[in-house]
Fold this sequence. Notes:
The chain has 1 helix and 8 strands.
Amino acid sequence: MSLLERIEKLEEAKAWPGSIPITSRYTVGIAGERFFREIKDNARFLGTRCPNCDITYVPPRLYCERCFAKLDDWVEVEPTGTVRTYTVLHLALDGSPLDEPEILAFIVLDGSDGGLVHRLGEVDPDEVEIGMRVEAVFKPEAERKGSILDIGYFRPL
């Protein structure tokens, strides 16, 4: 079968079984460094705004993905937002059952065109809905380390 032929059945796809033991490290870059430092030091969100496209990026970027303009305009973004989608987790990453279900959501922050994937708290899975208004709950200052986990969770407004 050539690469251009359409695969009709899964067993027709070529595959190499096995595993690749890989570890990696993600660097947050200049924009990410400032974003996470602001969360750690001041418990607030920053984004970058494109003057040409009028888009506010969260997480921030150094260049606009639409017009490629350099983004020098840093703006504070509200710690509130709207749930756009969510999922309820019943299993841990290793496949073991969780004692209590966890809720992960994509939250578009007010005043931005982007958002964050994070946990929801102080809400039952049956009560979560798309369009729900939420706010960030930051960890106490002494516990913050400069990561996305400095946000404990988002809770309903």
